């Protein structure tokens, strides 16, 4: 198998596996890698603590078929714990859970990669422009299910010099009603493209998604200059047939100073002409090693209790909980 073709397979899953994935097996064109993270996360709101710790574990397998074709399979799960003072297996408490984030297989080559299963839609790479913080951020550029991680999805991704493209189609799920088969009408598609403008540090992105009676589009841009990074996203669409008008934007910036990375984001969104997100967040991450970091993140919630709050299906009034700031402290180990 040509190294360039295999490299496409590995790089295509790099965002999910992480740069520290360990190679478990590699012989006769078959390879298996394991990666993931262990992340301790303490969240504080109104002086009260919550454990949002998690562990992610993933496996990436590739099989060379010939010089121009390979097979690929990928799985990633996330273990979380929020036992609220309970003991292992206490049925009266929220015990640890395992969620499957990805589970797909397919074929790839220099022309790109086709997969089916639970995979990521096409708008995740667009929201990544501003989703750069260790904990907070990414609260205004909402994605439809077909544009996010979802099952029953056929996906394509390809890289052609400075152009990256993604496309996904989610099938409607079969249901049996009164002895006959029907579907849940949750089919849809998403498309995106990202173009890097030569060696200028400028990247431009655009995407669109449509599902049932909802749709959205996103426009994004980023600029990297040495240790500085700036990005922005604008999104607009219909989250539902009625009372679902949605508009949002996100701004992000980052500065790297030695082993410390400072990031900040501003998120603003309106649903049905009322504010549904309005926050400003800052954080600092210190990298003891490339795969081990500690961070502190603070989110300033600019919504006040009693404000009108935009919601799909009907606006509400912001509660005290809706208006709270949040402090998060974490330690993350990538493997």
From TrEMBL:
InterPro entries linked to this entry: Gram-neg_bact_OMP, Gram_neg_porin_domain, Porin_dom_sf
Signal peptide range: 1-21
Domain of life of the organism encoding this protein: Bacteria
Keywords: Membrane, Signal
Domain (Porin): residue spans on this chain: 10-300
This protein's record includes keyword Heme: no
Primary localization class, coarse: membrane
Molecular functions (GO terms): porin activity
Location within or outside the cell: Cell outer membrane
GO cellular component: cell outer membrane
Keyword flag Membrane: yes
Gene3D superfamilies xref list: Porin
Annotated membrane topology: Multi-pass membrane protein
Name listed for the protein in its UniProt record: Porin
Organism the protein comes from: Vibrio parahaemolyticus
Gene name linked to the record: ompU
């Amino acid at each position: 198998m040509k190294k360039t073709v295999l490299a496409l397979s590995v790089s295509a899953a790099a965002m999910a596996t992480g740069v520290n994935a360990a190679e478990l097996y590699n012989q006769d064109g078959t390879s298996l890698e394991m990666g993931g993270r262990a992340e301790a996360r303490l969240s504080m709101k109104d002086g009260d603590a919550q454990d949002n710790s998690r562990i992610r574990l993933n496996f990436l397998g590739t099989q060379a078929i010939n010089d121009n074709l390979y097979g690929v399979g990928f799985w990633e799960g996330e273990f979380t714990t929020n036992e609220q003072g309970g003991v292992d297996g206490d049925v009266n408490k929220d015990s640890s859970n395992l969620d499957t984030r990805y589970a797909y297989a397919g074929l790839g080559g220099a022309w790109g990669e086709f997969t089916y299963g639970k995979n990521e839609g096409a708008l995740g790479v667009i929201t990544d422009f501003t989703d750069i913080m260790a904990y907070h951020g990414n609260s205004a550029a909402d994605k439809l299910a077909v544009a996010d991680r979802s099952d029953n999805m056929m996906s394509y991704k390809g890289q052609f010099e400075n152009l990256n493209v993604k496309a996904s189609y989610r099938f409607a799920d079969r249901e049996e009603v009164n002895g006959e088969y029907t579907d849940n009408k949750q089919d849809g598609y998403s498309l995106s493209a990202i173009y890097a403008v030569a060696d200028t540090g400028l990247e431009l992105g655009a995407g669109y998604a449509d599902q049932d009676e909802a749709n959205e589009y996103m426009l994004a841009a980023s600029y990297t200059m040495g240790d500085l990074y700036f990005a922005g996203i604008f999104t607009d669409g219909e989250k539902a047939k009625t009372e679902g008008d949605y508009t949002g934007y996100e701004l992000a910036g980052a500065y790297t100073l030695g082993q410390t990375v400072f990031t900040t984001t501003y998120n603003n969104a309106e649903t049905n002409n009322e504010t549904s997100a309005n926050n400003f967040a800052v954080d600092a991450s210190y990298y003891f090693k490339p795969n081990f970091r500690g961070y502190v993140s603070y989110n300033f919630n600019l919504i006040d209790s009693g404000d009108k709050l935009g919601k799909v299906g009907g606006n509400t009034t912001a509660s005290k909980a809706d208006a709270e700031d949040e402090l998060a402290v974490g330690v993350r180990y990538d493997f």
